[in-house]
Design goal:
homodimer; about 375 residues; alpha+beta; Creatine Amidinohydrolase, Chain A, domain 1; Creatine Amidinohydrolase; 2 domains; six-stranded mixed beta sheet; five-stranded mixed beta sheet; elongated
Chain lengths: ~375, ~375
């Protein structure tokens, strides 16, 4: 029985239709990686590409892009006409709950010559859907998690300019926030003050993780519920958005005073950031070598066991983009890539220090520390006379 | 180098530790389905089982449960000590960003005799993680999407009682809301009134989708932005929570008046719900037959092409649980199963009608229409004299 598709769906569009530049880059990347096609499930990756992210319940759906530059969409009837509107002139294959998605998917793959071929999958694709396809249809899937990020990895001059603006807003907002931080405030209060300044300075959105005292010893602390006390280490990791591009900065302060060990750990982390930035200044572009330069400092200082994370990550429209800055990402930094350098020492239940700069590789082959205007010196804040 | 794990993580616990009843059922189900183990990624499924859902970024993590009744967790260093606290006496294998997760996962699988074995995966597992494991480790994965739902599929008498309470709250809230609905209100206003009544009556949470006029023609409408007008079809699909258990009901009304076609479609949908409930009363327990009983009515009425969804779905702690009520779910309803019956006719840009009841199979082999107290008769509402 032919079932009526749903003509229009009350969903919010995230963009303005197909991004042809991204699409062309994606097709090129599919070919470069030796794939026959790419499957992209609803996610920001899909939104950046086609300007829309439909609701993604457990029903299988996704955009298939072929190396020949064609594309088609497979989804449930509920989503079919919505996607038809988003992708005019492209084939949308829809399946009905009572039948399941396998036969429709088989037909779609068959019509596009993809039976027996190799398809890369984006990060949002669900394993159980894929396992069902692999069991019943002759097709090979491979992880292509970073392929969608790859098409956004080199920032255009315009994107670089927006990111720089986001970072300058963040830098200025922190300078305005510092004199307002004092013992007695809650972490959440500091967050609100900082986000308020970012918004007032023109950011479209802002967020902040404020980890004080023992909370700073947890790299992923995120509850912002503690009250600040004299002697606290105060680690602030924060971000804002300008024209879609993100900043990402961390600074760690000491409230009213610090002990010997806090100062020692701080200086070690600072030395580590500077070592990575010096390696860049010396012309190093190989990512594992930059990770090594920063990590060696902390290891030689005797705190290697507390540096539990990668050195940094790519940055752009999403808070974590490619390239990861870590020892097993064996690639070179290239013009237009934007990323963070954020070594840290995290001593659970004691304290932790992270210093995070936000950098971009310039078109000329150099690099710019976008957050360089915000001091990385050890700062004691919250004293009455301040 | 041995790296320091993160001792404690500021996360919200969702429960109170391992649910031993669920765990035992899960192990039995793993064996029944011929699997050697099950992999469960962070999700409500994991929360119901172990009482905690850690933050799930793109880094691979998950609980492996073996058919022998053992379990272990694999995660990044950032999450390791958090999970060690949640799973005392269980092995937690942690990996470092700079190394990736494959070697740690291989070691964990090897130590538990799972190399070469078959592992089921829950719905939250990401395909790209699994593809990487499958490429590098000798292990077979199969979709086991419904296995975690299976251990919750038969409601205990206590759960049944909580669900019944949730439904009775919802029924009473709707009766209080109906006299307040009138032309000029926005869909969002109706939502607020209804949710307010449910909260006032003791629900822990409530939600409502209000689709008026042409919006009712979209089965998944969800923006609640339109202003109600005389003659509108007003479709209200709403839910509340009592002690964790959900209700799920839909009723469709007509504002001040209705046309011939609205009435005709309404009566057809009502006849369809009643047909499914009559099939149950006649002793039918095979799910495809119940779907057929309801669907046949709408097909014979000439609107089959507009009944685009499954007939219903399981209900419990989550809005969509097992069993799906659809023609390709070839199983039988059993005591304790709770589910919806919700046929609909959706005519995009015109109007739509859905009537949804919430049912549970009783321990004695019968069934109870929990939402039976809320009339399914055609109701014209919003008239001044009402």
């Amino acid at each position: 029985m032919k079932r009526q598709r749903q003509k229009k769906h009350a969903c919010v569009r995230t963009g303005v239709g197909m991004n042809q530049i991204y699409f062309d880059r994606l097709v090129k990347e599919i070919e470069r990686q030796g794939l026959d096609a790419m499957l992209i499930a609803p996610s920001p990756d899909l939104g950046f590409l086609i300007g829309h992210v439909p609701l993604f319940c457990l029903r299988f759906q996704g955009l298939f892009v072929t190396r020949e530059g064609d594309c088609f969409y497979v989804c449930n009837l509920l989503t079919a006409d919505e996607m038809r509107e988003v992708l005019p002139n492209k084939k949308v294959y829809s399946w009905f709950d009572g039948d399941g998605f396998i036969e429709t998917t088989r037909q779609a793959l068959s019509e596009h010559g993809l039976i027996g071929k190799t398809i890369g999958v984006s990060s949002a694709v669900r394993a159980f859907n894929l396992l069902e396809i692999m069991e019943k249809i002759d097709v090979r899937f491979v992880s292509a998690r970073e392929l969608c990020a790859e098409i956004r990895i080199r920032k255009t001059p315009e994107e670089a300019s927006h990111m720089n603006r986001a970072v300058q807003i963040a830098v200025e907002a922190m300078e305005r926030t510092i004199p307002q931080i004092r013992a007695g405030l809650y972490e959440k209060d500091v967050q609100d003050i900082l986000v308020g300044h970012m918004r007032a300075l023109g950011a479209e959105a802002g967020s902040a993780m404020v980890a004080s005292g023992p909370n700073s010893g947890f790299a992923h602390y995120n509850s912002n519920t503690r009250q600040l006390q004299k002697g606290d280490t105060v680690l602030i990791d924060y971000a804002c958005v300008y024209r879609g591009m993100l900043s990402d900065i961390t600074r760690t302060f000491f409230l009213e005073e610090h002990g010997e060990r806090q100062k020692e750990v701080y200086e070690l982390v600072k030395k580590s950031v500077l070592a990575a930035e010096q390696a860049l200044a010396d012309g190093e572009r190989w990512i594992p070598a930059i990770d090594r330069a920063a990590r060696r400092v902390i290891e030689e200082g005797g705190y290697g066991t507390y540096f539990t994370t990668r050195l940094g990550h790519g940055l752009g429209y999403m808070p974590h983009e490619s390239p990861d800055i870590k020892q097993n990402n064996e690639r070179y930094l290239e013009p237009g890539m934007a990323f963070t350098i954020e070594p840290g020492i995290y001593m659970p239940d004691e304290f932790g220090v992270r210093i995070e700069d936000c950098l971009i590789m310039t078109p000329e082959g150099g690099f710019s520390i976008l957050s360089g205007g915000l001091s990385k010196d050890c700062r004691v804040i919250g004293r009455a006379e301040a």
